[in-house]
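Small ribosomal subunit protein uS13m structure dump, as promised
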Amino acid sequence: MSYISGARLVDNKQVRIALTKIYGIGPKKAIQICYRLGISGNIKIKELTKYQIDQIEQMIGQDHVVHWELKRGERADIERLINISCYRGIRHQDRLPLRGQRTHTNARTCRKLIRK
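C-alpha cells r here:
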C-alpha cells in the first residue's frame, strides 16, 4: 500500500485510476499528472519506484489543492455564505436543499432533522 497526500492507494490498480482515490483529483487531473511526469498511466502502483512516487506526491503538493486544504476551502465558502445571510447561506444553515429542489414531498431526510 502506498500513501500519497493522505490517501491509501491500492497496489494492483493502474496509476491513473489509483490517483482518483485522492480527494480533489479526478480522472482528467490524474492523466495530466502522469503525462507531465512521463509516467504511463497504465502501469500498476506496485511497479512504480520510490522516486516516481515521491515525484507524484511532490507535484500534487505543489500544483493541486487536495484533501484537507480543499475541504477547508469549501467549508470557508459555506461559512461566508452563512455570515452574509444570503439565500444559499440560510438554506445551508437550515440544512435544506439549495438549488430550488422541491421540499413539499421530497428532501425527507433533511426535513426530518428539522422537525425533531
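The two ends are 44 Å apart (CA to CA).
lmk if u need the other ones
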